[in-house]
């Protein structure tokens, strides 16, 4: 293949007809010309990490072989077009470490976050379940409230722990937890504490949801509060958080040297989300301003993690996943970046918060030398909710009851085989709680506009515009030609399946399940000017319909005022 990835996407219909949607191998000799030119540059820029290339075997390890380590790196607000190897014609920010990871592994071109904003996506990763089945019907959580993950629900970390894994989370949690006064046990209230006090105890955080160890923070507005395990241990400046997380991740990996038990490291970074604060040594490196610098510093985490794995001789049998929780935020000044030739969403329409693909189609790169052949690409549809079922499949373990209602194993894709799924399609969800449904090339959107931050928004459009959108992404990956009125039968079929997936409590086959709330509103713009579900729990303490990187706020260097 001698065309860029986004060009290949426009030919998906013909490729699917020939290959049946199966992943295809891209030998290094046939990579895009851009990569052949820039690949050596990426290699040199990451050479300080001393990561050696590996020879893939391409076969699943036998049951008697050691279980694989798992490192899951999820960036915050990193757009599909922010990774240079994914969009070589429109990306201007160097990402040598992610590019090298891709050259040594597999790129997924049709991977989606569970939502176009933060908290819902992270819930889906941890539980294998869509977040709109909970009290969180739109927006994000803000802390100082009970965990969004119910105490009785097993997380992917708890599952892996039951399979003999050591588990650690280092980074941004953003799934709610409470802060208690360590002396009285009383709950601290958000309105009295902009930053949780040092010493505050956390009764329902990551170490109570399956992790042996945690170091990080809750969300951007509380980034100064550094948490270890179940305590706020200190207050630190926000600019120090990314270096802190990088160092802690390396420290944890190196601590696993010589240990018999495998490990799961969940590394949810807080970057390049606001506050956009690249460290001094990274400032000015990209030539595209602070956002570009911060993306480069975020990319460096991949290199540091890879180098640490190499030092403990764990590269071969470690599954590394690099992804993002949603698209790029407008707080990055998308228009200014575009004027400099950088398109944060590449060929996709929209960005963070939107129901269009730019809001939730995200980078997804997998390296696992013992299983995944280097230089490969997969065009099959997956969702970040799929981690849980994939790991259960790899471990040949039963999926625990009460989990994985919306999770499908993409393990076959790692072997360049078709994914076998009982899920009919993937449900998309926007910042404002609007739904969309994707099945094959077809995408139905139950909204007139972006359902997020990009114009036109719902308030900008009247009844003269069709109340829904329908796109054939094989022919129209930019979502520009609305076929809702032209293809009513397809629209009705997708709507019916979406209704079934919502009402049934699960989108996969399995034990009966139910949603945590009743009366989930399907047509948000048709129900009281998008006020959402009266039964959704949106008024619960800790809920916010305002994301922490609202485009109405600037990315001030100090981090003050960020939402």
Main sheet characteristics: 11 strands, mixed
Question: What overall form do the CA principal axes indicate?
Answer: globular
| SSE class | alpha/beta
Portion in helices: 10-25%
Mean pLDDT: 87
Beta content? 5-15%
Separate helix tally: 12
Can you walk me through this structure?
The chain is α/β, with parallel strands linked by helices. 22% of the residues lie in helices and 14% in strands. The protein is built from twelve helices and 19 strands. Helix 3 crosses helix 4. It is globular. The chain starts with a helix and ends in a 19-residue tail after the last strand.
Summarize the helices and strands and which ones pair or pack.
Elements: H1 5-9, H2 12-19, E1 24-25, H3 33-45, E2 69-75, H4 96-103, E3 106-108, E4 111-112, H5 118-127, E5 140-141, H6 156-162, E6 166-172, E7 213-217, E8 225-228, E9 231-235, H7 241-255, E10 263-268, H8 290-311, E11 318-324, H9 334-339, E12 364-367, E13 376-378, E14 382-383, H10 387-394, H11 411-414, E15 426-429, E16 435-439, E17 442-445, E18 469-472, H12 488-503, E19 543-544
Parallel strand pairs: 2-10, 2-11, 3-13, 4-14, 6-7, 6-10
Antiparallel strand pairs: 1-13, 3-12, 5-19, 7-8, 8-9, 11-12, 15-16, 16-17, 17-18
Helix pairs in contact: 3-4, 4-8, 7-8
